[in-house]
């Protein structure tokens, strides 16, 4: 039975099936379990994927949601912290300003560090921005709590980071300014050596403290003193040389302001109105100026030094005072040793005349006899010689010379007074101008105050407004014509160049006297400019035949309501700018029917009288900088108006009837509160040449601007890059070229004059991949306070094609790591070929100027296009804390025109000029490396705590033009690299330029380590301790 395969007795077969089936079921069950396990694993994995995806989604959404809820929940805490940090920033700024003021006064001659000035400017802007944020948060709805909380938290972080990098109050906030003073422009000195030497001798003597240089107008007093002033600057005898021009309209306040201005401290007096306090402050200023020479030019009357609070010069304080005057009595009453400047001798007068009249005339022997007689008529007065010689320059016809001689004699034979004879001789040159328009342009200059320096661009604009320059195809052509006239007046010595920072001219006071004498008759002007008037001239002075009135730059505060209406039927020009006028009676303009030019700029006027609307011949209405002006009457009747300037007024809407002014050529609507420009207004002003609208809250369509075919000068604000790109693209398609423009994108910022083709990117946040288009003829790029900008190459690649770009300024951009990347992405063969100046300020993450994208090749083999950066003259770097090397060695060959390097507060900077490097290597041995910058004149290094070397360990600088090395706050810098010519290998150094200065503190200079004692001996005479030199 056992072999039957049946279950035996006692076995426990499956109750449901026979044992065979049970066995098969066993195997079948195992497969099912396996299938179930597989299915389980499959569904488990799939479920896990769903779970992971769900968790990922939750993470993606959850983190921002949590953050959002955190901003909402902690809103009030964020606001409290924000206010706390803002108040801390305010206090820090105020403390620093007070410390800066104190340091500027102890001693004088200091100027704020560039980094300090930049930090204060940024701090003020940040405080204003913080106030805007607070206003937004306070007025925000409850639903905006999270968004406002985020905004507040971000701004708090920005302010905290900014505060952490504030200038160290324990260090000085100032550096040395110009050593003694600035040289003055002057003409050559002929035949006046004797009196010049006598004045110089007295200045060098202790017993003479006050000197009076006197003589008739035009004899050369000012020229002599300008030469002495410039010579004093080269000496070390005096700590300061102060030049002040006084003029006829003398008063104590004006003189105090002029002296303070010469000391770069005018702001301290401007805040004080009390005469006693002003006097005390001025006295302290002059005493702290140390041993000084005060030169007062063009003094007409005696005055009390005590009243002005000028310390009495004496041998004990070592101070000197020199004044120039036409009166010997003034010298005597001021207690001065008087020195007479006499006219030139005949020989010296002839030499001076021949030097001015030109070589062709000198070589013409037939003219010489008459020429000598003409020189005699000049009576040895340098001014008259300059003017007459300038008039006859290039004339080779003997008849012209004989006629000139007759005119000179005829104009002076009946005049007895010497001063009047001078005026008549000067008038000879005026009469020979021939062109009436040039004569009118010259006489117009007399409308300005005496000795006033007039901006050239402003003057040519005025001539255009007056109609002296005929209509031409473009406004720029008219400006060019104006500059040609200016050049002619300068060449004839009727105007003199007064250029300092901006191109300016001025009239010699004798020439102004001549112009005023002419305009007292025909044409008749009434000129009382800059005479400190507090009231309008009396009724009898407003004569019926007056054509132009200038009352500019006075202190006139009101025009009484009951005042007479001046009866000036011929009046065409009324200049009232720079007064305190608040209101004008409606009847004031009633009897001025021919008025064409009205200038009320820089007054306190709040509303223009409606009677202005009746001035139907008005062509120019100037109201810029009227910071209280709210109302301008209807202008529809002024259909001849060509120029309307409302810049920096507070009008809220465009004057009614402006769309009718179809002859308008110049329109400035940069107004702080202007809200709306009606559609279609701009497009109707089809003759516009100059247009400025630069505000974010102005709803004006740039499409209308594109229809203005005559536009030459343009200023506009764009809210984002899309608008700017659209405009630039349209300009390219139309092939229209602007003479000047200022285009701005980002936050609102009120600009100044348009003098270049400039684009400003201000407070803009760049999106990833966002590109900005620029006009290809851009000359100036200004970038400030932009976020998420890491390189210009990333967002403004077209910049590499801007072959006319001359200036580039980047500041307050927290994220930028390099200025541009190389290789350049553009098709231009020579990117940045015209760049002259590069300014980089407060860029905390900036690592390098040019980032090299390495592709396995050594950086030492980098070769930029030869013209790239080849015209760069100035590099100014401040507050770039992450930069370690300023200029890599491979860049130097492109910088052969570099003249100035200034580095300030770059905390991590190790070296100025980097040595060659290779991929993955340290700086290689550079014992024979030459760093060639042949035109470098100035090297300024301030507050660089980690700076170890200027050009690596033992490199040699080839800098034959170097004239100044200024080092301050660079304690680890122990070596000045050789930079002067060598006689030969191993031979002593040949020479150092006489004008070379190495300025620092004595402790640093004593700590220097020298490779060659001969080099030390050569440079030691050129060391200057900048702590003591201005004390």
From TrEMBL:
Organism field: Hibiscus sabdariffa (roselle)
SUPFAM superfamilies: L domain-like, P-loop containing nucleoside triphosphate hydrolases
Stretches assigned to the Disease resistance protein winged helix domain: 447-515
Alphabetical list of Gene3D superfamilies matching this protein: Helical domain of apoptotic protease-activating factors (1.10.8.430), P-loop containing nucleotide triphosphate hydrolases (3.40.50.300), Ribonuclease Inhibitor (3.80.10.10)
Keywords: ATP-binding, Leucine-rich repeat, Nucleotide-binding, Plant defense, Repeat
Protein name (Swiss-Prot/TrEMBL): NB-ARC domain-containing protein
Domain Disease resistance protein At4g27190-like leucine-rich repeats as annotated: residue spans: 865-978
Chain ranges of the NB-ARC domain: 196-362
Domain of life: Eukaryota
InterPro entries: Apaf_helical, At4g27190-like_LRR, Leu-rich_rpt, Leu-rich_rpt_typical-subtyp, LRR_dom_sf, NB-ARC, P-loop_NTPase, Plant_NBS-LRR
Similarity section: Belongs to the disease resistance NB-LRR family.
């Amino acid at each position: 039975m056992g072999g039957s395969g049946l279950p035996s007795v006692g076995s426990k077969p499956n109750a449901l099936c026979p044992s065979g089936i049970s066995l098969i079921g066993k195997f079948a069950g195992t497969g099912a379990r396996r299938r179930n396990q597989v299915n389980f694993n499959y569904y488990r994995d799939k479920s896990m994927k769903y779970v992971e995806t769900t968790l990922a989604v939750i993470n993606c959404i959850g983190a921002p949601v949590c953050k959002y809820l955190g901003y909402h929940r902690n809103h009030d805490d964020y606001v409290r912290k924000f206010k706390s940090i803002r108040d801390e920033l305010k206090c820090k700024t105020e403390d620093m300003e007070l410390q800066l003021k104190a340091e500027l006064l102890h001693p004088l001659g200091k100027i704020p560090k560039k980094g300090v000035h930049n930090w204060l400017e940024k701090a003020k802007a940040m405080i204003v921005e913080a106030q805007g944020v607070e206003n937004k948060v306070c007025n925000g709805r409850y639903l905006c709590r999270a968004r406002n909380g985020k905004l507040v938290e971000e701004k708090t972080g920005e302010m905290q980071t900014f505060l952490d990098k504030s200038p160290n109050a324990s260090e000085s906030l100032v550096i040395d300014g110009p050593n003694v003073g600035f040289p003055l422009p002057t003409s050559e000195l002929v035949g006046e050596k004797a009196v010049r030497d006598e004045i110089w001798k007295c200045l060098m003597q202790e017993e003479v403290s006050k000197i009076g240089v006197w003589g008739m107008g035009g004899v050369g007093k000012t020229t002599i003193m300008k030469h002495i002033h410039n010579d004093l600057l080269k000496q070390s005898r005096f700590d300061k040389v102060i030049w002040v021009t006084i003029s006829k309209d003398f008063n104590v306040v004006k003189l105090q302001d002029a002296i303070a201005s010469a000391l770069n401290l005018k702001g301290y007096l401007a805040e004080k109105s009390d005469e006693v306090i002003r006097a005390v402050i001025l006295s302290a200023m002059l005493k702290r100026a140390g041993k000084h020479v005060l030169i007062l030019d063009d003094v007409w009357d005696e005055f009390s030094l005590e009243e002005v609070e000028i310390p009495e010069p004496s041998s004990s304080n070592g101070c000197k005072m020199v004044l120039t005057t036409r009166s010997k009595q003034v010298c005597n009453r001021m207690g001065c040793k008087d020195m007479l400047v006499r006219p030139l001798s005949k020989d010296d007068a002839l030499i001076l005349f021949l030097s001015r009249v030109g070589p062709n005339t000198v070589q013409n022997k037939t003219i010489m006899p008459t020429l000598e007689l003409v020189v005699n008529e000049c009576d040895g007065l340098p001014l008259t010689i300059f003017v007459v010689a300038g008039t006859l320059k290039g004339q080779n016809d003997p008849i012209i010379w004989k006629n000139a001689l007759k005119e000179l004699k005829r104009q002076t034979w009946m005049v007895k007074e010497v001063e009047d004879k001078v005026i008549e001789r000067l008038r000879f040159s005026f009469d020979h101008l021939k062109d009436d328009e040039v004569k009118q342009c010259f006489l117009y200059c007399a409308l300005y105050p005496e000795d006033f320096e007039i901006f050239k661009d402003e003057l040519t604009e005025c001539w255009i407004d007056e109609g002296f320059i005929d209509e031409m195809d473009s406004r720029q052509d008219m400006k060019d014509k104006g500059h040609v006239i200016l050049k002619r007046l300068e060449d004839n010595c009727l105007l003199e160049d007064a250029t300092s920072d901006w191109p300016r001219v001025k009239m010699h006071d004798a020439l102004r006297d001549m112009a005023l004498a002419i305009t007292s008759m025909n044409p008749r002007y009434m000129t009382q400019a800059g005479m400190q008037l507090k009231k309008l001239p009396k009724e009898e002075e407003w004569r019926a035949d007056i054509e132009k009135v200038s009352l500019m730059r006075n202190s006139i505060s009101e025009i009484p309501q009951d005042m007479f209406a001046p009866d000036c039927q011929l009046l065409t020009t009324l200049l009232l700018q720079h007064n305190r006028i608040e209101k004008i009676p409606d009847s004031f303009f009633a009897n001025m029917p021919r008025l064409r030019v009205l200038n009320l700029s820089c007054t306190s006027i709040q509303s223009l009288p409606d009677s202005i609307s009746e001035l139907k011949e008005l062509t120019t209405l100037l109201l810029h900088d009227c910071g209280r002006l709210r109302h301008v009457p209807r202008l529809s009747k002024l259909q001849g108006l060509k120029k309307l300037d409302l810049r920096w007024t507070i009008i809220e809407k465009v004057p009614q009837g402006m769309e009718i002014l179809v002859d308008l050529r110049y329109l400035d609507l940069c107004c702080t509160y202007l809200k709306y420009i009606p559609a279609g207004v701009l497009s109707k002003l089809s003759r516009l040449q100059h247009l400025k609208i630069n505000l974010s809250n102005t709803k004006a369509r740039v499409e209308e601007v594109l229809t203005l075919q005559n536009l030459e000068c343009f200023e506009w604000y764009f809210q984002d890059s899309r608008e700017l790109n659209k405009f630039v693209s349209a300009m390219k398609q139309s092939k229209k070229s602007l003479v000047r423009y200022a285009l701005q994108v980002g936050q609102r910022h009120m600009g100044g004059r348009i003098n270049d083709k400039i684009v400003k990117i201000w407070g803009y946040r760049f999106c990833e991949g966002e590109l900005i288009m620029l006009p290809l003829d851009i000359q100036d790029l200004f970038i400030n306070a932009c976020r998420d900008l890491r390189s210009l190459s990333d967002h403004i690649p077209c910049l590499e094609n801007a072959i006319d770009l001359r200036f580039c300024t980047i500041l307050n951009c927290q994220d930028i790591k390099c200025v541009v990347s190389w290789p350049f992405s553009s098709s231009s063969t020579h990117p940045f070929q015209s760049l002259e100046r590069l300014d980089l300020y407060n860029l905390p993450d900036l690592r390098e100027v040019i980032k090299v994208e390495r592709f396995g090749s050594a950086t030492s083999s980098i070769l930029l296009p030869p013209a790239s950066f080849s015209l760069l003259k100035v590099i100014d770097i401040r507050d770039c804390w992450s930069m370690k090397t300023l200029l890599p060695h491979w860049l130097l060959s492109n910088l052969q025109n570099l003249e100035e390097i200034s580095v300030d507060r770059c905390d991590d900077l190790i070296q100025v000029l980097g040595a060659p490097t290779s991929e993955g290597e340290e700086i290689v041995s550079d014992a024979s490396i030459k760093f060639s910058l042949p035109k470098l004149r100035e090297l300024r290094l301030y507050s660089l705590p980690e700076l170890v070397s200027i050009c690596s360990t033992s490199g040699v600088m080839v800098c034959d033009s170097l004239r100044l090395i200024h080092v301050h706050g660079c304690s680890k810098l122990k070596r000045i690299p050789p930079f002067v010519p060598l006689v030969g290998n191993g031979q002593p150094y040949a020479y150092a330029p006489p004008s070379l200065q190495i300025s620092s503190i004595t402790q640093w200079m004593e700590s220097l380590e020298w490779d060659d004692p001969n080099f030390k001996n050569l440079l030691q005479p050129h060391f200057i301790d900048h702590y003591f030199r201005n004390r």
